[in-house]
Write a structure and sequence with these properties.
mainly beta, 0% helix, elongated
Amino acid sequence: MEKEDVTGSIETGKSADFIIINQNVLEVPDTDISKTKVLKTVLQGKTVFED
């Protein structure tokens, strides 16, 4: 099985590893990117951190 068969996108059957952050870092000024906070971390479909 290739790595891209189980990771790399959000699809049924793939490992759900992702974070949710409080702002869109593509839309805020560069000087505000460092103020980004992680709100939730999900690894293999399970929440491992939530603020």
